[in-house]
Amino acid sequence: MFFYGSPMKHHTVAGLFLAAAWLAGAAQADDLDARVRAFTGARTRAVWCRQAEGAGEDVFARGRQLQVWGYDSGDGLGERVILGAVTNYHRPMITPKGDRIVFNNLRDRLISVVRWDGSGLRTLTNGTAADVWLDPATGVEWVYMMVREIEEFHSGPVIRFQLDNPAVSEVVLDRQDVTWDNFQLSADGTRASGQFPHPRAGYVRLPGGDETVLGKGCWTSMAPDNSYLSWIFDGPHRNLHLFAPDGRHWKVTINGAPGVAGYEVYHPRWSNHARYFAMTGPYKVGPQGKNLIAAGGGAVDVYLGRFSPDFTAVEDWLKLTGADQADFFPDLWIEGGRGAAVTLPAGQPAQAPEAATKPGTRVKVEARLAASIPTPSVASISPYTQALVVYTYEVVKVLEGECSAPRILVAHWAIRDKQVLDLDKEQGGTYPLELELFDAHPELEGERLFMETEEFDLPLFYSTGN
Questions:
Q1: Buried b (16+ CB within 10 A) or exposed e, 454-465
Q2: In sequence order, what DSSP letters do the residues of 334-401 get, joined into one string?
Q3: Dihedral angle, C-alpha 192, 196, 199, 203, nearest 10 °
Q4: What's residue 349's pLDDT?
Q5: Which DSSP category does 289 fall into?
Q6: Which helix (H) or strand (E) holds 292?
Q7: Each residue of 404-417: pLDDT tens digit?
Q8: What's the pTM?
Q9: Roughly how many angstroms between the first and final C-alpha of the chain, as a whole number?
Q10: pLDDT in tens, 165-223
């Protein structure tokens, strides 16, 4: 390429372009920092796995194409790489004091730690780290780990060791059926959410291991205070089901963030501040009939959510990342977050299970099948053994009950106990359907549900006759 003018002028022009690019990047970082500070009200750090190579399909972070990325609202650098060597990284977690990151190499079964600036990288021990916890009495930081994976989604026993002295360790849960996604402790360390094993979800008391099963699902999480509020992520991968110690239970939808548009989300995890959590999404690529979570995709980003004061809704969202590569396993740390606590109002929350029995939940209709989806394979839904598929219908006639919607979504059983069912329905055909509102069946919350529609605002029913 030929340029007119002197070399000095050309170098000056190139320098101006570089300076302009640097200023643009700095301006973007400053804008993000301002939005994060307005969102959390304090210095905020986040860490996650980014798939540096491939199509963003390593949702479970089992491959060797990952990096560790982070963000700190206090340094002006924006999102940046912390560990750039492309290899396996799994579940990076910010330590309670906020200055280091503990992470796994699943392929080699190693637990390591690194400083926030990427220095001081060292291996701690063999195993799979599941949580980090600070003893409020001593100020010692502990790492909780699963010694080995007995079989898929079955691990144990759970051992903890001191982060700064790994030789000091002890067994805290002597059982072999703990799923390491997602084991998380209360502030006092006496309870831990988990799956025992997936999809049997709830929490255990420590020490001792007395188990309380709350339902079926995945990505359990425990509030970071001593309220013992916990959640289970449901099979549709769209809602958190929160459980208070007094028996109250309600649903919070988390796929309504700007940019998610009602699609599936994943990796939800409570931060060290009770009002805030992180997750990833949207998951919307892949062939029909396949598990869209497993397909991932380059558009999967990290989102931060803020609960309303009564924890019955997400009152605000912030999209943290925006690269073309997929981001997985986010962890969020907010300065001073350990001082925040859950305060639930007395009485039932706005969404209680009892509300599902209200009049109008049952209806019989004659409906035309407008859109169906393929039934997934049994192998593709593992570790689930059952699955429902959602079809779209046009209501032709209401036979019993009340249904004013001209179009509805209906969940049909497609797989039961690893057996594929024949739904015997063709697109364009008209069928009598006996339906109940999906929300009237809390027992379905933990079942895998496949929904491939953009009409998320349509009412969702459950077919009682399939």
A1: eeeebbbbbbee
A2: ETTGGG----PPSS--SS-GGGGGSTTSEEEEEEEEEE--PPPPTGGGTT-S-EEEEEEEEEEEEEES
A3: -30
A4: 60
A5: T
A6: helix 292-295
A7: 999 999 999 999 99
A8: 0.80
A9: 68
A10: 999 999 999 998 998 778 999 999 999 999 998 888 999 999 888 899 888 889 999 99
CA distance 429 to 55: 38
Segment holding 19, helix H or strand E: helix 7-40
Listed by start position, the domains of the chain span: 16-346, 354-463
What length is written for the chain? 466
Amino acid at position 132, single letter: V
CATH of domain 16-346: 2.120.10.30
CA 180, 185, 188: angle at the middle one, nearest 5?
160
* Helix, strand, or coil (residue 291): coil
Q: Which of 135-139, 144-148, 223-227 has the lowest mean pLDDT?
A: 144-148
Contact 88, 101 (CB under 8 A): no
- Whether residue 151 is predicted with pLDDT greater than 90 in this model: the reply is no
Evaluate whether 391 touches 410 at the Cβ level (below 8 Å).
yes
